[in-house]
């Protein structure tokens, strides 16, 4: 079988590095040659333009540039071909670093010390062991499990919540709707690593934040969201921070991105903002995985890391 041609369809960033690396082995185009270009076999995408893929007659698979695939499902003309999501050590490592960094910063009172320094305040708050703190990971998938195992090794108590039951040694696991409230009630630092689907849209709202445990060495519960912005209601987070339901938050993702300059989250003293940068997709690491999958597929092997279209992730 001849090597299939790739359509590289991205918005929001310049795809030159992806193009250079993919084209080392395959022909790559940035625009199809007409709406029904028969030469395209694969699409490598990040937020592809709506209906761009709809009528490509020989499209055999779509490769997401991210671990999340909500950007693909946003397309009303999405063809019914397999979708492959990113599962890669490099991306997992980045996310683990982000989660551990943010958990440790909240646990070790980073926000307080940063506020004390300009005022030259020499004050040490009471220090608690990590074992006093329960970190609850919402979304115990590839990224959630990797972060959980490092947090465990640091001595934190770890809870996990997933759609189906996902046992993990050392982690108190909860699942489904019935498991959500017990999971929250046992959690001091909530780490959100869910995919955005119709079921999870808006799940991080005031009612959910209100259920978090406050009996802990941090002096209040903490939210860390590195999943997707539309999992959360920005206004509910503001409300929870302002009335003390939340002590602090680290937010990597927002309902609208880039976060509008008018958002009060930018200047909120209890919020740490990063620009959807928790785990970047690096083509140097991800392109070889995609090319290997395409080669294997053409030899008749199965594609790995397929998206479950019904579940939406
Ligand atoms: P996975 O598909 O491996 O894991 C998703 C987890 O979420 C699974 O445990 C799944 O449950 C759980 N889940 C899904 N729907 C529900 C639901 N309705 N109720 C309860 N649990 C649910 O994904 P990854 O770990 O690879 O990635 C997670 C997300 O992280 C991505 O979808 C993306 O949005 C985000 N991300 C953000 C990045 C950033 O830079 N900010 C970078 C990379 C990813 P089950 O185990 O039962 O299937
Ligand atoms: C992803 C992301 O989904 O970068 O991988 O957000």
TrEMBL record:
Residues 102-278 form the D-isomer specific 2-hydroxyacid dehydrogenase NAD-binding domain. This is 2-hydroxyacid dehydrogenase. Keywords: NAD, Oxidoreductase. CDD domains: GDH_like_2. Pfam families: 2-Hacid_dh_C (PF02826). InterPro entries: D-isomer_DH_NAD-bd, NAD(P)-bd_dom_sf. It comes from Mesorhizobium newzealandense.
């Amino acid at each position: 079988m001849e090597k299939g041609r790739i359509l590289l369809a991205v918005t929001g960033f310049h795809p030159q590095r992806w193009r250079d690396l993919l084209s080392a082995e395959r022909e790559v185009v940035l625009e199809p040659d007409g709406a029904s270009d028969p030469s395209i076999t694969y699409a490598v995408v990040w937020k592809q333009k709506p209906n761009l893929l709809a009528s490509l007659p020989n499209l055999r698979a779509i490769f997401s540039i991210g671990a999340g695939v909500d950007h693909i499902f946003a397309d009303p003309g999405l063809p019914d071909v397999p979708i492959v999501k990113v599962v890669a050590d490099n991306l997992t490592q980045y996310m683990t670093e982000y989660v551990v960094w943010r958990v440790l910063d909240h646990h070790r009172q980073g926000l307080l010390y940063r506020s004390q320094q300009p005022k030259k305040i020499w004050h040490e708050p009471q220090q608690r062991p990590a074992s006093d703190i329960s970190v609850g990971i919402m979304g115990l998938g590839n990224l959630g499990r990797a972060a959980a195992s490092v947090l465990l090794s640091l001595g934190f108590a770890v809870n996990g919540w997933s759609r189906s039951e996902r046992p993990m040694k050392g982690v108190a696991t909860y699942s489904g709707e019935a498991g959500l409230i017990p999971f929250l009630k046992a959690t001091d630092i909530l780490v959100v690593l869910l995919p955005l689907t119709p079921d999870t849209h808006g799940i991080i709202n005031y009612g959910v934040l209100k259920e978090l445990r406050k009996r802990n060495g941090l002096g209040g519960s903490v939210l860390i969201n590195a999943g997707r912005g539309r999992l959360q209601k920005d206004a509910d987070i503001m409300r929870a921070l302002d009335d003390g339901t939340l002590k602090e938050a680290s937010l990597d993702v927002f309902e609208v991105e880039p976060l509008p300059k008018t958002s009060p989250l930018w200047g909120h003293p209890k919020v740490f903002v990063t620009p959807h940068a928790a785990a970047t997709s690096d083509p140097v690491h991800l392109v070889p995985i995609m090319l290997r999958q395409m080669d294997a597929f053409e030899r008749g092997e199965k594609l790995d890391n397929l998206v479950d279209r019904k579940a939406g992730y």
